[in-house]
Amino acid sequence: MHTASDSRGRHLRWPTRGISFGGDYNPEQWPEAVWQRDVELMREACVDFVTVGVFSWARLQPTPETWDFGWLDRVLDLLHDGGVRVDLATATASPPPWLTAAHPEVRPVDERGYRYEIGSRQTWSPSSPIYRDHSLTLVEKMAVRYGGHPALALWHVSNELGCHNSRCYSPDSARAFRRWLQRRYGDLTELNRAWGTTFWSQHYSAWDEVVPPAASTTFGNPTHLLDWRRFCSDALLDQYLAEREVLRRITPDVPVTTNFMVGMGSPQSLAGDMNYAQWAPEQDLVSTDHYLVGPATGDGAAHHRLSFSADLTRGIAGSQPWLLMEHSTSAVNWQPVNRAKTPGEMLRNSLAHVARGADGVAFFQFRASQAGAEKFHSALVPHAGTDSARWREVVQLGAVLRRLEPVAGSRVEAPVGILFDWESQWACEQDGHPSRLMQPMTIAEQMHRAFAGVTCDVVPPDADLGRYSVLVVPAMYLCSDEEADRISAAARAGAQVLVTAFSGIADRDDHVRLGGYPGAFGDLLGVRTEEFFPLGADETVALDDGTTARVWTEYLTVAEDVDVLARHTEGHLQGVPAVTRRPVGDGAAWYLATVPDMRGLERLAETICATAGLDLHAGQHSDVEIVRRQGENGSWLFVLNHTNEKVTVDVSGTDLVTERVVDGPLTLEPGNCAVIREDSAGTGAPTRKADA
Ligand code: GLA
């Protein structure tokens, strides 16, 4: 088994050999007679890793006084006998009805004061002391009973923390929010300063006046709202840490994770409600779920979003291997139109994650449910049974992943870093900003797509920035002095730093930096803006390099040592710079004062890459994904054809998907993929030749 570093810097033995393969296994939904058959099927498909018990609290503790572990004992024994490693859930994700009926205050309250009813899942408030007590009792029971079980490879705390209960406005939450604020600010004077409460007569004179920002007359106080988002993320992180503490006390050597939803967003936020950059260092291995799927969504950009999310997952994992804890073999029941995946799509999705650093590929769930809310969600074993195309594709995927065993532990090297900052995203989702259309996550995704011809890391602002030839700062609205200094230092040290509009505008208290925009980056970029002129949803502007731009314009003035690369051609901004570059130390600082269309962004990316000595085109076409993983044992080139046409790529080695030797042009049919074990350690970028 390969190793990675866990959250304590220790060597972590990966849960399985090679690339882990499996999914959520929910045997409690089935009679015991099915379990033996399930394990046989797992062996047939090379499944070696399953997550057990995620939603089994009500089964494990059917009444407050009774516990029933016998069935789970038998499941774990069966799995162990079948050679399947277990990611055992702490089972705290959904409290049983007896708990939330006896203690309604456990259930979360929405921003209009409505307390959620029993009948769905994850119906608990992160700040409820009663939930905390009961959940930790369960964790302790699980750890004591199964800590020594030979099948146990990993602890799975709760499930997608924050998926349904990320904001709770209950009295318990109000008390916890005040305690959080007291730790952050010490006293009310500091809170009043940070929140700017002189505006709109919001000065607080006693802590009890401070409440969660529930529904009110109009816009809330921006820093109050931002602190609420920070608190909500921390409140759930606190539940994770409390469970982890119990697990570590009883089973110090078993690694602990909880499954993130990186890049999945939430009803309230494009980036989701948990600041995973802060959560990731607390995981022994980072795991995530991804359900944005391809043609089933009718969204041609889905594979770009998948690769963005995967690169962000690797970014927050500090480039360590990570685990794809859940995706779908086919249909995803919560989509409004729930279509099956097309032939080959599951393999392509799975390999896209592996290409970008996943050392495990797992799904929700092993056997499709007959009953319950997700009965139309796909599974490894579909409703149709094993005499089905889906099962045959699952078996094929297992065989391919088995052949990829040596890839495990290898790394993805990325010359381009794209910063992503959860807090800037949350702040830009508030009312009262220059434009609702200016969203850091959207800009970051567009940048990732523009630079798709080279591999990008998507990293938080506190990452090691010194390793990138190109560093992109997409609408990083909130920025501390220290962060701005580190970004400037990267430019001085030789990086091409591209800052986009609406970056560096406010400090981490969300107070605007005075003296002209873009505040924190004005000196680095040598540019200054006094007022913004954002565009309506249908408006465009033309630049003199042929680019069409949207969303944003500003009246930009530039210092003498700044090169203007593109100017506005029309209207009141005619002649005003829109794209600039300033030499800085051994590198340069580029400013993009608008949002070009995709073609314009790609051209800018080409220019910047050329300056940095990177060949954007040689690597990839944006719909032919080419990513290399490299390790001590070799290098592997992942080539995924997301287009509807045949493509040809020059490669040399053995394709581990088809087990064919390739030396020269490799033609991939539409939707097909290859993983080339390269004959000599690859460094050069392969060329995508003409379409066949
Ligand atoms: C999430 C959850 C699973 C299941 C899947 C499928 O990822 O963790 O329990 O609901 O979605 O939709």
Protein model, in words:
This protein has 692 residues and is α/β, with parallel strands linked by helices. The protein folds into three domains: 341 residues, Glycosidases (TIM Barrel, Alpha-Beta Barrel), CATH 3.20.20; 196 residues, 3-Layer(aba) Sandwich (Rossmann fold), CATH 3.40.50.880; 67 residues, Golgi alpha-mannosidase II (Immunoglobulin-like, Sandwich). The chain contains 18 helices and 29 strands. Strands 7-6-5-4-3-11-10-9-8 form a nine-stranded parallel beta sheet. A seven-stranded mixed beta sheet has the order 14-13-15-16-23-22-21, with helices on both faces. The protein is globular and about 75 Å long. The two termini are 41 Å apart. 54% of the residues are buried. Bound molecules: alpha-D-galactopyranose. Alpha-D-galactopyranose (GLA) binds next to loops.
The percent of residues in helical segments reads 25-40%
Structurally, the number of domains stands at 3
- At CATH level 2, the architecture of the largest domain is Alpha-Beta Barrel
Question: How far is the N terminus from the C terminus?
Answer: 41 Å
Topology:
Layout: E1 3-5, E2 11-13, E3 20-25, H1 32-44, E4 49-52, H2 57-60, H3 70-81, E5 85-89, H4 97-102, H5 129-146, E6 152-156, H6 171-185, H7 188-195, H8 222-250, E7 256-257, E8 259-260, H9 276-279, E9 287-289, H10 302-316, E10 322-326, H11 345-355, E11 358-363, H12 389-403, E12 411-412, E13 416-419, H13 422-428, H14 440-450, E14 456-459, E15 470-473, H15 481-492, E16 496-500, H16 522-525, E17 527-532, E18 541-542, E19 548-550, E20 554-558, E21 563-567, E22 577-584, E23 587-592, E24 595-596, H17 598-612, H18 616-619, E25 624-631, E26 634-641, E27 647-655, E28 660-668, E29 673-678
Parallel strand pairs: 3-4, 3-11, 4-5, 5-6, 6-7, 8-9, 9-10, 10-11, 13-14, 13-15, 15-16, 16-23
Antiparallel strand pairs: 1-2, 12-25, 17-20, 18-19, 19-24, 21-22, 22-23, 25-26, 26-29, 27-28, 27-29
Helix pairs in contact: 5-8, 6-8, 14-17
Bound molecules: alpha-D-galactopyranose.
Alpha-D-galactopyranose binds at residues 159-160, 289, 326, 332-334, 364, 374, 377.
GO cellular component, one term: beta-galactosidase complex
Domain Glycoside hydrolase family 42 N-terminal: 24-403
Catalytic activity: Hydrolysis of terminal non-reducing beta-D-galactose residues in beta-D-galactosides
